[in-house]
Specification:
It is a single chain. With 134 residues, this protein is of the alpha+beta class. It has helices at residues 14-31, 38-57, 60-67, 72-85, 124-133; strands spanning 33-37, 94-101, 108-114. Strands 1-3-2 form a 3-stranded antiparallel β-sheet. β2 (94-101) and β3 form a beta hairpin. α2 packs across α4. It is globular and about 45 Å long.
């Protein structure tokens, strides 16, 4: 009786899916926001939020568990920069903003970003509001 098999398949085989989610997670950690398809953004949110929860703990065991899913540089950034920012936040570390549809294949596009993360720039919501005002 197989239960709790609710992973998003994303139309690729399991090895490709793991590699794709790892690359998306590392790019999100590096750039703090990325533009991708809606289904990939939702899968990425399920993949990265438990890692941020482990980064909040900051202990060695949590770091080793995250190292199984990410490369060393991304783990260091996650534990040193991103984890302390969300130390008192109980969850919901990412935000998905729908951007419409891609022109060539009409795939639903989304912007996934960290919530309340000040990386020296504006948040995507503030940028969109500024563009609409102009």
């Amino acid at each position: 009786m197989a239960k709790n098999n609710q992973d998003r398949k994303l139309g690729v085989n399991p090895a490709h899916r793991r590699a794709m989610l790892m690359n998306l997670a590392e790019n999100l950690i590096k750039h703090k926001r990325i533009k991708t398809t809606d289904s990939r953004a939702k899968a990425l949110r399920e993949y990265i939020e438990p890692m941020i929860t482990k980064a909040k703990k900051g202990d060695l065991n949590s770091r080793r568990m995250v190292l199984k899913k990410l490369h060393k540089n991304a783990v260091q950034t996650l534990f040193d920069e991103i984890g302390p920012v969300y130390a008192d936040r109980p969850g919901g570390y990412t935000r998905i903003i729908k951007l419409g549809f891609r022109n060539d294949d009409k795939a639903a596009m989304s912007l996934i970003e960290f919530v309340d993360f000040e990386s020296g720039g504006e948040t995507a919501v503030a940028k969109n509001e500024n563009e609409k005002a102009e």
